[in-house]
Structure formats: structure tokens, C-alpha cells
Design a protein that fits this description.
41% of the residues lie in helices and 15% in strands. By secondary structure, the chain is α/β, with parallel strands linked by helices.
Length: 343
């Protein structure tokens, strides 16, 4: 750790202050950001005041918030020392991953204890185009599960990175030679019987429903390579109904929007798992589009398979939304609104 302890003579007497010293002033400038925008982001999120003088930062505020801000600043400075940039998303991730109260018995403690179970494994997913890093405690648990278990469920609201991280893990394992192909699937429940009336061949009919999976792939492989791998069938993107009767060996298989799979479809999909393969099943049980009275296969799978060795479950909440802070607030408001009123 390159951050040094301050000279004892320079330590403030005020117990509501924390003094940090950073040896590399150039990195400190990058840490603060243009017009101190990084500092402003940390101040607004954590409720502290941060003042810079020379190569020192002084933190003002309540002790728990100052401690969390110190952890955030130290982790971001270490990131800069490794030659990596600091973006608003990186700051948000550092804040999420710095425990606010290490002594309390809260839900956060439960999440961190789950992390301890998997300590010592890498938390970076390397792909052809970018390095993907978890941005919340649950994302860390999820990434470890993806590399540790043969079957992983990621359940939670939109914007928590469930599918994105699963496809990133698939890309990484394909690049490393741990699997021979990638299979991505979704239930095309919105199409239903209308599928036959859409123009074009079957690929053109279902591609609109698969577009989020194409978008994720293009983040991890050059677009021309994605097209080539699809042509060579080393990457396959297909509706869930196309999985019936197959055995998927030496593949990384992702089922997205799994809340829209029926119980029989879910059983069919899970039993496609072949030798040398991995599966990730992602979905949001609050956004089920199945007809009224048709149970969700994702809910049934969780009920039946919880506790089965070799299967990992990760549950996300609004606290894990990394898409935009407003998305998290929308989810909390919607969840707290209760059932719709008549009239």
C-alpha cells in the first residue's frame, strides 16, 4: 500500500477529522478528478466533507462515514497505482464494496460473510475487448459462483448485471479454452403464436427477442468476431424452445429471462447439461410475463433445487443496481407501492 501514514505532528486534534497522505501528487490529481468531481461524488454519496491541501486529504464527518470514505479513497488510489482509470462507475463500485459498518450485524454483514466463503479467487473477468469487474458485494458473490459452480442462478431486479456478468464469464471461459462454445437462450414468450406472422426466416423472427444477448457479446468480442463465431456455431443464440432434445457438452450455457420459462421448460433446459459444461440461469421473479395461472419455472427451480450440492444461488436487490441510481429508486418505489387500486 503506497499511501503513507501522516506525520504525527500534522495529525489534526479534532476527532471528527481523518488525515490521509498520498505520496504521488500526480495520482492524487487523478484521484480527485477534473474540478474535483470524484471528490464531490464521494462527498454526496457518503455525507462527508473532503478538503485537499498539498498531497493530503482531510475527511470531516461522523466516524463511520469517514472510515468508509477512507476505504473508498484508498481502494481508488490503489487502482490508479495499477495504471487503471477511475470512472464514476468505479467510484460507485468502491462505495458499494466498502462496508459502512464493519461491526454491525446487518444484511451487509451477511453479504460480506458470503464473500469470505470464496476468498482467494480472482474477481476480474478478462475478455477480448474489456476487463469486467464486480461493482457490488452481491456481484462479487455471483462472479465467484460463476467460476466455482457448474450451475448458477442469478435472481433479482433489472440493472444488477445478472446476464451481463454471466455472458462475460462465458466469454472468458471460451477464450481460456475451458469450454468449446457459448449457448445463449431466452424464452420468446412475447412472440407466442404471433411468431409465424412476423416477416423473414426463423432467425429474423426471433432475433429481436435475443438482442440483449447480442449486445452483451459485442461488449466482449469484436463485432466481426461475434459474427464469425456465430457463423461457425461456436456461439449460438436461440429461443428456449430450440433446446429440447439436445445435450449441451463442453459449453457455457446462459438462460436469460428465466422467469418466463414454464416449469416443464425449466426442467427440460436444466437437464440439457452435458459433460464439461456450465450453466447460468438469470431472471427477475417480479417480472413474469407468463399467462395467468401458469407457474414460473424459475420460482419452482429455486424451491426444488435450493441446497442441492454443486448449484449456486445469488439473490440481488435494488441495492445492487449498477445501471443508474434512478433505476434503484424506481425499483424500491415500485416494490413499496403495493397492489394496484381499482377505479
Amino acid at each position: 500500500m503506497a499511501i503513507t501514514a501522516p506525520n504525527p505532528a500534522s495529525i489534526p486534534d479534532d476527532p471528527s477529522e481523518t488525515l490521509l497522505e498520498f505520496p504521488d501528487n500526480r495520482l492524487l490529481i487523478d484521484l480527485c478528478g477534473e474540478l474535483d468531481r470524484n471528490i464531490v461524488q464521494i462527498e454526496s454519496r457518503l455525507g462527508v466533507a473532503i478538503h485537499r491541501r498539498g498531497n493530503h486529504l482531510t475527511l470531516h464527518g461522523a466516524a463511520p462515514e469517514r472510515e468508509q470514505a477512507e476505504q473508498v479513497l484508498r481502494s481508488l488510489y490503489e487502482r490508479l497505482e495499477k495504471g487503471r482509470p477511475v470512472t464514476p462507475g468505479d467510484i460507485d463500485a468502491a462505495i458499494r464494496l466498502a462496508p459502512a459498518d464493519r461491526g454491525g450485524a446487518s444484511g451487509g454483514e451477511s453479504r460480506m460473510s458470503q464473500l469470505d466463503m470464496f476468498s482467494g479467487e480472482p474477481l476480474e473477468i478478462r475478455t477480448r475487448r474489456k476487463l469486467v469487474e464486480p461493482r457490488s458485494a452481491m456481484q462479487e458473490v455471483y462472479v465467484r459462483n460463476l467460476f466455482r459452480h457448474e450451475l448458477v442462478f442469478g435472481i433479482g431486479p433489472a440493472g444488477t448485471g445478472k446476464t451481463y456478468l454471466a455472458v462475460a464469464a462465458a466469454a472468458s471461459m471460451y477464450i481460456d479454452g475451458r469450454v468449446d462454445r457459448i449457448v445463449l437462450s431466452r424464452p420468446a414468450v412475447e412472440a407466442g403464436e404471433r411468431l409465424g406472422f412476423l416477416p423473414g426466416d426463423m432467425k429474423e423472427k426471433v432475433d429481436p427477442y435475443m438482442q440483449p444477448l447480442y449486445d452483451a457479446l459485442n461488449d466482449f468480442f469484436p463485432p466481426k468476431q461475434v459474427a464469425k463465431l456465430i457463423e461457425e456455431r461456436q456461439i449460438e443464440i436461440a429461443p428456449l424452445a430450440f433446446m429440447r432434445g439436445r445435450t449441451l457438452s463442453n459449453a457455457f450455457v446462459v438462460l436469460d429471462e428465466a422467469q418466463n420459462a414454464t416449469t416443464m421448460q425449466m426442467k427440460m433446459f436444466l437437464t440439457r447439461l452435458g459433460e464439461g459444461s456450465r450453466m447460468a440461469v438469470t431472471g427477475d421473479t417480479t417480472q413474469i410475463d407468463l399467462p395467468l395461472g401458469v407457474p414460473s419455472g424459475l420460482i419452482e427451480a429455486e424451491r426444488i433445487l435450493r441446497g442441492v450440492p454443486g448449484i449456486g444461488f445469488t439473490h440481488f436487490s435494488a441495492d445492487d443496481v449498477v445501471r443508474h441510481s434512478l433505476v434503484a429508486r424506481i425499483i424500491r418505489a415500485w416494490d413499496g407501492a403495493g397492489p394496484p387500486r381499482d377505479g
